[in-house]
């Protein structure tokens, strides 16, 4: 499956929906659907696919041959951007948080991005905090040449609008509630805008150090000129913050893999599904409710 059509427009694939069978679900009288966005593409899965495609198309339309974006040392977004750019024939530049990493061997995530042709640039943590300022961006573009700048996670207006299709694909699924993990707010912002009448979205925060409600509202404003009222963010299942876990979360993910044959990302989807199952145990869902959970990959 290619990332861009021959005209340079984004391809528009859908992802399958899988219903889980589980004694806990049956006891609660709740249906649980998994929206398998992790199966959209072998190297550019899920929300990365949906957010990057419109940005790649915009770069092509503007006659640009490069995309510059940002991420941490283990960023799935950087790796996905490298893969997407390679397939689309665009040069990619990955700006990495932490100049102390420059002289170290590359970890597997950055090594794979580099192997796919991404140019890596490391910023010290003070400069990183000002990474979207005019001064820092000018410096980066002087070093690397003209490029379309895409924020961390791919969450800009283009990326948000790319996630609207995710909600539309679930509009006729029968889901009353759609849950997804939240890191930057872009997926939730677009997903909520695409849902059908009466459907609601809940974003499960994967980190603790960002005002995700405010950021999601701002993304909807930039993408659509207003906010939809059909979403909220649950911040009670962060497990200490981004990239952190606990024995309880690890045990949950192992049990889920044993029951359903699906490995969950401990930084994102494991937290979301842990929260959903906690809600089952607490009686948060009325019998007859259908819940869909997005597996972004």
Q: Which strands sit side by side, in order, in the main sheet?
A: 1-2-10-7-8-9
CATH architecture of the largest domain, by name, is 3-Layer(aba) Sandwich
CATH topology of the largest domain: Rossmann fold
Strand content: 15-25%
Amino- and carboxy-terminal Cα gap = 17 Å
- For the record, the count of structural domains works out to 2
User: Any idea what the shape is?
Assistant: globular
Low-confidence stretches: 5-12
Rg for CA atoms: 19 Å
What is the overall pLDDT average?
A: 92
Helix content class: 40-55%
| Biggest beta sheet summary | 6 strands, mixed
Question: Can you write the helix and strand succession as a string?
Answer: EHEHEHEHEHHEHHEHEHEHHE
Could you characterize the architecture of this molecule?
- By secondary structure, the chain is of the alpha/beta class.
- It folds into two domains: 17-42 and 156-294, Rossmann fold, CATH 3.40.50; 65-146, 3-Layer(aba) Sandwich (Rossmann fold), CATH 3.40.50.1100.
- It is built from twelve helices and ten strands.
- The protein has helices at residues 23-28, 46-61, 76-88, 108-115, 125-129, 134-144, 157-162, 164-170, 186-194, 212-224, 247-260, 269-282; strands spanning 17-19, 31-35, 66-71, 91-97, 119-123, 148-149, 177-182, 200-205, 231-234, 290-294.
- The strands form two sheets. Strands 1-2-10-7-8-9 form a six-stranded mixed sheet. The protein has a four-stranded parallel sheet with strand order 5-4-3-6, with helices on both faces.
- Strand 4, helix 4 (108-115) and strand 5 form a beta-alpha-beta unit.
- Helix 2 (46-61) packs across helix 3 (76-88) and helix 8 (164-170) crosses helix 9 (186-194).
- The chain starts with 16 loop residues before the first strand and ends with a strand.
- Residues 5-12 have low confidence and may be disordered.
């Amino acid at each position: 499956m290619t990332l861009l059509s021959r005209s340079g427009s984004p391809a528009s694939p859908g992802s399958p929906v899988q219903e889980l069978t589980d004694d806990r679900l049956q006891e609660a009288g709740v249906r649980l659907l998994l929206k398998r966005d992790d199966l959209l593409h072998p190297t550019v899965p899920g929300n990365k696919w949906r957010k990057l495609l419109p940005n790649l198309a915009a770069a092509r339309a503007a006659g640009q041959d490069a995309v510059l974006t940002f991420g941490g040392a283990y960023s799935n977004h950087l790796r996905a951007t490298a893969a997407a750019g390679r397939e689309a024939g665009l040069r990619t530049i990955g700006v990495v948080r932490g100049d102390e990493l420059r002289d170290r061997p590359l970890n597997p995530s950055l090594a794979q991005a580099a192997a796919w042709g991404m140019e890596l640039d490391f910023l010290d943590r003070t400069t990183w905090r000002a990474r979207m300022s005019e001064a820092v961006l000018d410096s980066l573009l002087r070093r690397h040449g003209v490029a379309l700048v895409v924020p961390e996670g791919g969450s800009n207006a283009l990326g948000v609008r790319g996630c609207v299709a995710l909600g539309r694909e679930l509009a006729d699924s029968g889901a009353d509630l759609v849950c997804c993990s939240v890191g930057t707010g872009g997926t939730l912002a677009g997903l909520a805008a695409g849902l059908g009448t009466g459907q609601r979205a809940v974003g499960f925060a994967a980190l603790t150090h960002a005002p995700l409600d405010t950021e999601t509202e701002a993304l909807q404003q930039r993408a659509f000129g207003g906010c939809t009222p059909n979403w909220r963010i649950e911040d009670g299942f962060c497990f200490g913050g981004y990239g952190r876990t606990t024995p309880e979360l690890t045990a949950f993910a192992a049990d889920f893999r044993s029951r359903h044959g699906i490995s969950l990302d401990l930084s994102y989807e494991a937290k979301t599904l842990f929260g959903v199952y906690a809600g089952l145990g607490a009686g948060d869902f009325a019998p007859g409710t259908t819940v869909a959970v997005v597996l972004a990959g």
